[in-house]
Design brief:
The chain has 227 residues and is an alpha/beta fold. 37% of the residues lie in helices and 13% in strands. Bound molecules: S-adenosylmethionine (SAM).
């Protein structure tokens, strides 16, 4: 189990934390449905427009290199949303068989044309695939959306379908300031904590894959002008 940041090339987002605080409870309920509002509603409700822009291409190259992926290998992304990473993995590694699963019917129905038929609606806690059926699994910013027991089950499922060959990234905070930004910004996470909390949880789940954290940083520009 290694700590490695495969999302090092993901662009940094501007976050107007203050704007989200107002209608947080209402927006949280809406976001947790993972429907149109979460993906393509306002920034206060979720992504504020979830559109393909090629940002996953350099990350896809790093994932291919990290796992030594080749044509014919099979990769599953859990929490694939509209399939941007699925599409880019296939683009950078022709012949790689990439599939995705997501709880959101909205995301799967509005997937990128290149991945239609490769994405399925389903729950991370119960993957409809045999043991050891994938070369690698990826799950990025998804399993923290589950209650702790279900979160552990989802991590065990990753391990079951691709033992020792997972990449899991989850939200975390290292101190009280980061925790405050996290609580103000994040709409859907139900299981969260420090990296040490997560390492203990991953061990408890018997996870042998790799992992890293998404840590929200305070954007000084937004806070100064908008608080
Ligand atoms: C923050 S988004 C991340 C999407 C994508 N992995 C990315 O990094 O851009 C979380 C995704 O997890 C999905 N999700 C939430 N709960 C899930 C569950 N129980 N099983 C599968 N997918 C789930 C949501 O629909 C959403 O697409």
């Amino acid at each position: 189990m290694a700590e490695i940041n495969l999302l090092a090339k993901y662009p940094k987002a501007k976050r107007n934390v203050a704007a989200r605080v107002g209608a947080k409870a209402e927006n949280r309920l809406l976001a947790m449905q993972f429907g149109r509002e979460y993906f393509d509603g306002t920034r206060e409700q979720g992504y504020g427009g979830f559109r393909y822009d090629g940002r996953w291409l350099p990350i896809a190259r790093d994932i291919v290199e990290h796992f030594g992926l080749k044509a014919g290998h099979r990769v599953l992304e859990i929490g694939c949303a509209k399939g941007f990473l699925v599409k880019d993995l296939m683009a950078v590694c022709p012949g790689l068989e990439v599939f995705g699963i997501d709880i959101s019917e909205y995301a799967v129905v509005n997937a990128e044309p290149e991945v239609i038929g490769r994405l399925h609606v389903g729950n991370a806690t119960r993957l409809p695939f045999p043991d050891k059926s994938f070369t690698a699994t990826l799950s990025i910013n998804t399993v923290h959306n589950l209650e702790q027991g279900a979160c552990v089950r989802a991590i065990q499922e990753m391990e079951r379908v691709a033992p020792g060959k997972g990449y899991l990234q989850v939200d975390a905070y290292r101190n009280a300031d980061e925790e405050r930004v996290f609580l103000d910004w994040v709409l859907t996470a139900k299981t969260h904590g420090t990296p040490a909390f997560w390492v203990e949880l991953l061990q408890r789940a018997g996870y042998n894959g790799d992992h890293y954290w998404t840590i929200l940083e305070l954007d000084r520009e937004w806070t100064i002008t908008n608080v």
